């Protein structure tokens, strides 16, 4: 009798075939859910998250607001390191597109667009609007902090980011060397963005500079192409804010200025000018027409040199062969609008001296 009772208990505890079937179904559902979650994890770029998308088509890119038509070769002898909003900016790429040329095209175009706002995808701090104290409050102390280039640099290797900041603790340089960016090649940048405004060279690196509006410069830093690596991969990018490097307290040179020679409208849709007080030890990098309203015009010095005295499509800056007479050619639609000419001079460290004209009305 006791043996029968123990057997009955054991049979009662053993699950039925139907119960086993439901258990297998539930286990399969749970496994699918786990796989789905794993597949949905985003790729990290610098310090932020990367949102996923099912589309692998290349995003069409509007050309930069500034004409990129020429390049300048400059040798840098400095030892500068070559390595706004409170939320990070995501990179819209999947692991599939990230490993393809299509993904790199998207990332290059997005990087240029964000650089016009002083931002880098995945980094929640912007050049010109963020302070290094804000960075440290969010990310903690940097792994190292050194004086280099145009200011101090704080490094955050775990975030794939470095920050240059001035004596007022304002961030003027945001650098990123994330693995996603380092998948980009030299030829891809030039194919997507066209010729850079300026090309600079160090002993081991080639730097492609694209002016992104009146405030920022986007630098792509590569190992110098050569026979061993004809199409090198990116080392890092730099979103640079020249105005943040101006040290008015230490500057003992007068700001550059312009003297109008031929007034607007007196010789067609242009005006000519001379540049006064050109600072020694600094080279002219950009000329800008900044209207009171409407789209600014930004030309790098190599572009202006290529335009010569009569080339380029207006609106654009031009310069005489001897470099003494400069001009700004504009379109009929720009007439009656006032604006100023801004001059950006930079030394080999990137530090800037900036000059500006009095208001000029186009006629």
Key words describing this protein structure:
single chain, 363 residues, alpha+beta, Immunoglobulin-like, 3 domains, nine-stranded mixed beta sheet, five-stranded antiparallel beta sheet, 7 helices
Lay out the secondary structure.
Blueprint: H1 2-13, H2 17-39, E1 44-45, E2 48-49, E3 73-75, H3 95-98, H4 101-115, H5 132-139, E4 144-148, E5 151-156, E6 161-165, E7 171-176, H6 186-193, E8 198-201, E9 205-212, E10 216-223, E11 236-240, E12 257-262, E13 270-276, E14 283-291, E15 297-300, H7 301-307, E16 316-319, E17 326-329, E18 338-346, E19 352-356, E20 360-361
Helix pairs in contact: 4-6
Outline:
With 363 residues, the protein is α+β, with helices and mostly antiparallel strands. It has helices spanning 2-13, 17-39, 95-98, 101-115, 132-139, 186-193, 301-307, and strands at 44-45, 48-49, 73-75, 144-148, 151-156, 161-165, 171-176, 198-201, 205-212, 216-223, 236-240, 257-262, 270-276, 283-291, 297-300, 316-319, 326-329, 338-346, 352-356, 360-361. Helix content is 21%, strand content 29%.
Helical region count? 7
End-to-end Cα distance, whole Å, is 115 Å
Q: What's the oligomerization state? A: single chain
| Overall number of strands | 20
Note the run of SSEs as H and E: HHEEEHHHEEEEHEEEEEEEEHEEEEE
General shape: globular
Uncertain parts: 1-44, 48-99
Q: Which strand order does the major sheet show? A: 3-8-9-10-11-7-6-5-4
Gyration radius, in Å: 28 Å
Q: What number is the mean pLDDT?
A: 80
Proportion of β residues?
25-35%
Class from helix and strand fractions: alpha+beta
Number of domains: 3
How would you sum up the major sheet?
9 strands, mixed
């Amino acid at each position: 009798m006791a043996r029968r009772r123990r057997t009955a208990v054991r049979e009662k505890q053993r699950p039925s075939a139907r119960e086993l079937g439901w258990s297998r179904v539930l286990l399969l559902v749970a496994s699918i859910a786990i796989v789905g979650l794993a597949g949905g994890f985003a790729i990290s770029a610098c310090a932020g998250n990367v949102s996923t998308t099912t589309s692998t088509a290349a995003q069409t890119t509007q050309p930069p607001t500034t004409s990129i038509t020429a390049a300048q070769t400059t040798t840098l002898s400095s030892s500068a390191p070559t390595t706004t909003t409170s939320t990070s900016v995501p990179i819209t790429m999947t692991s599939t597109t990230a490993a393809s040329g299509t993904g790199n095209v998207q990332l290059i175009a997005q990087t240029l667009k964000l650089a016009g706002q002083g931002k880098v995808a995945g980094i929640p701090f912007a050049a010109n609007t963020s302070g290094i104290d804000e960075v440290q409050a969010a990310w903690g102390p940097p792994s190292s902090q050194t004086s280099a280039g145009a200011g101090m640099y704080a490094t955050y290797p775990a975030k794939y980011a470095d920050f240059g900041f001035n004596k007022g603790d304002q961030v003027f340089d945001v650098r990123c060397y994330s693995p996603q960016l380092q998948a980009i090649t030299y030829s891809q940048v030039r194919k997507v963005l066209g010729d850079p405004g300026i090309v600079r060279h160090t002993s081991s690196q080639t730097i492609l500079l694209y002016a992104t509006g009146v405030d920022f410069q986007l630098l792509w830093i590569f190992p110098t192409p050569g026979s061993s690596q004809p199409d090198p991969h990116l080392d890092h990018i730099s979103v640079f804010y020249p105005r943040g490097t101006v040290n008015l307290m230490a500057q003992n040179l007068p700001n550059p200025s312009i003297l109008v020679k031929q007034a607007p409208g007196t010789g067609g849709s242009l005006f000519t000018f001379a540049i006064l007080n050109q600072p020694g030890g600094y080279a002219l990098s950009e000329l800008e027409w900044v209207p009171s309203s409407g789209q600014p015009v930004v030309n790098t010095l190599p572009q202006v040199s290529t335009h010569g005295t009569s080339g380029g499509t207006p609106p654009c800056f031009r310069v005489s062969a001897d470099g003494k007479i400069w001009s700004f050619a504009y379109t009929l639609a720009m007439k009656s609008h006032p604006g100023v000419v801004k001059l950006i001079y930079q030394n080999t460290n990137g530090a800037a001296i900036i000059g500006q004209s009095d208001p000029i009305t186009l006629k």
